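Hey all, quick one. A colleague (J.T.) asked me to put the coenzyme A job into the tracker so the inputs and the structure tokens live in one place instead of scattered across chat threads. No bug as far as I know, just bookkeeping. Sequence used:
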Amino acid sequence: MINDIGGLLLAAPAVQTAPVIRSLLAGAGGYLPRRVLGNEELALSVDTSDAWIRERTGIRQRHIAGPDETACSMGAAAARSALAAAGVAPQGIDAVIVATSTPDQAFPATAVSIQHALGIPGGFGFDVSAACTGFIYALGVVDAFIRAGQIRRALVIGTEVYSRILDWQDRTTCVLFGDGAGAILLTAGEGSGTGADHGLLSTHLHSDGAHADILYVDGAVGRRDRPGTLRMNGREVFRHAVARMAEVVDEALAANNLTHADLDWLVPHQANLRIINAMGRRLQLPPERVIVTVDRHANTSAASIPLALAEGLADGRIRPGHLVLMEALGGGLTWGSALLRV
Ligand code: COA
């Protein structure tokens, strides 16, 4: 830059713009329990039918954890697969952040157990509790650490065994959920350089305890009288899900000066195909640009988005450079979005 002051030509020192540090997606993986429970088999033990479940939710089957499978074991398996996809050794990981509402124990945190199971020698780990929005919350937390320069490589994991907090006689809830885990590896890197910004462009997190009574677990490890079972007013949750997620996707696009036409993929929380289709229509995305796993996995809560993302990446639908919008709503209520350029 040349400044012309009073006839003297002064060469100003070149301004060094610091590279924008972003959380870049390095790999993803998933794990599903071996045991598959189809709608028809479920209808043998509770008053429901394959036709009702498919028509109202799009769910055909769900995976159910065996006695040897836990949030830790499944989360570790998903994380191993994310590390393998990224070609990164566990030794280089700075942080393990796990979103779960169904941890193995009150403490140690599932994240710390997974850190140990993977042989990660240093760094730190903790769990995030935000029900079905947990993975979006975990992304927001990790992104802040990475942007602040405190960590460079983090595993972000969603892992759930809802089969252990369901009332298997309550047909209004037990047909909706399944078990599983998904994980991604985020690494610090330059966000720009190839023109478009890459990596996690934004996360937006929200909660409102005023609606705690429409989706909750009526107990906890800390209560002597009851370990807790999931309770839900499905209609009310449905209403809030459509309204809040519509707000949050608009918020994400506006914050990044983007429109729905810029999106390549919607990777939504997988609770109900009707909610997913409503969001797809709102974003004017054809069904083939929306990743759907709810038909095979049911609702795996915090694991559903990373499982769907891992599937889309593994089968080549989601490719480098694609813009991916993730959104979720869960008990709390909690809701949020994350926008990622792969
Ligand atoms: N099998 C058969 N019938 C069932 C049933 C089941 N599994 N579950 C409920 N029913 C019955 C109800 O008892 C009711 O019968 P009634 O009319 O005789 O009282 C009827 O089906 C309709 O129930 P309703 O709750 O109005 O159905 P719905 O169309 O709202 O669908 C959900 C129910 C749960 C599928 C739907 O509300 C939903 O998906 N909500 C959001 C849930 C969610 O996403 N939760 C997780 C968020 S993270």
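Adding what we noticed when we looked at it: The CA atoms of residues 106 and 223 lie 11 Å apart. The chain has two domains: 20-191, 199-292+300-341.
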